[in-house]
Design a protein that fits this description.
The protein is an alpha/beta fold. The chain contains 11 helices and 12 strands. Strands 5, 8, 9, 10 and 12 form a 5-stranded mixed beta sheet that branches. Helix 7 (142-149) links the parallel strand 6 (135-138) and strand 7 (154-157).
Length: 281
């Protein structure tokens, strides 16, 4: 039990542990191993391209998204960096590295629905039609405010696992998920008796960034330098395609009914004017 505090202290002191400074990031989410592997590969690519000496270490404690934000913004020393969807508030609390780690894929949403309701979704064509249905979302997720600001009814759950049960019991009509989340979830017990809706794609402009705690500006600068180099030489795009190309094709994103939403949480500094950073279907 004595090793973990020492590890976290070293994580806050670059260069204190051999040649490679350890960086602690959140424990992987259950059922999201594929996305976790991509993010770890991306962070290592950034470090390699930056020529920096860091080693990434997974935290030894599972944390909710809300707690991850508290740990980073509060400078507790338990975490050095994390990846999460951006918002104006989060960019004020932590240091954002403004290169979208998933090229904006997190803003492409497909939904779990009850099997008996798939046919009604095949007839859906407009946002006004979608307003007839109630979405399930996490209470502390930025997506909740985005959906509501677009006039879409939302019921929230305090825990991620509860949302699947809310859908099964008919308390909500659909559970929008990022495209890279649904396959692992569909294969697990949580989504039992639910199906991935095959016709509709919700899309809003947003980005997932690497966020660094406020007292680590040099770390943020190193990661930004490395990611910019990876964009410039095409290696970030190749990494993305290797991890997500089949998934995008399998879920036929470019053949679905596209419903565009506006994002009231999008910070003004989001680099929407840089096409090389974003996915184009």
């Amino acid at each position: 039990m004595q090793r973990r505090p020492v590890l976290l202290l070293l994580a806050a002191t670059p260069g204190a542990w051999g040649a490679r400074a350890p960086l602690v990031f959140p424990m992987r989410d259950p059922g999201r191993d594929a996305h976790w592997r991509y993010l770890l590969a991306l962070m290592n690519l950034a470090v390699e391209r930056a020529g920096a000496d860091y080693e990434f270490l997974e935290s030894q404690e599972a944390m909710t998204q809300a707690r991850v934000i508290r740990e980073l913004s509060g400078r507790t020393g338990r975490l050095d960096l994390a990846w999460t969807m951006t918002s104006i508030e989060r960019e004020q609390q932590m240091i954002p590295v403004r290169i979208p780690v998933d090229r904006g894929l997190i803003g492409h949403r497909i939904a779990f629905v009850r099997r008996e309701h798939v046919e009604r979704w095949a007839e859906l064509r407009t946002l006004d039609q979608l307003k007839r249905y109630t979405a399930g979302q996490g209470a502390d997720w930025p997506d909740t405010e985005i959906l509501r600001d677009n006039g879409l009814p939302v019921h929230t759950g305090s825990r991620y696992e509860v949302l699947f049960d809310m859908l099964r019991k008919g308390r909500v009509d659909y559970f929008p998920r990022a495209v890279f989340e649904v396959d692992d979830e569909a294969a697990g017990a949580l989504a039992q008796d639910l199906v991935i809706e095959p016709h509709v794609l919700l899309r809003y402009p947003t980005a997932s960034y690497l966020f660094v705690r406020p007292d680590r500006p040099q770390l943020a600068a190193d990661l930004e330098r490395g990611l910019e180099a990876a964009v410039a030489d095409g290696s970030l795009q190749k990494l993305f395609q290797r991890h997500f190309g089949d998934l995008i094709s399998r879920h036929r994103l470019n053949q679905r009914v596209l419903l565009n939403l506006h994002n009231p949480l999008l910070p003004p500094a989001t680099p929407l004017n840089r096409p090389a950073l974003w996915l184009v279907l």
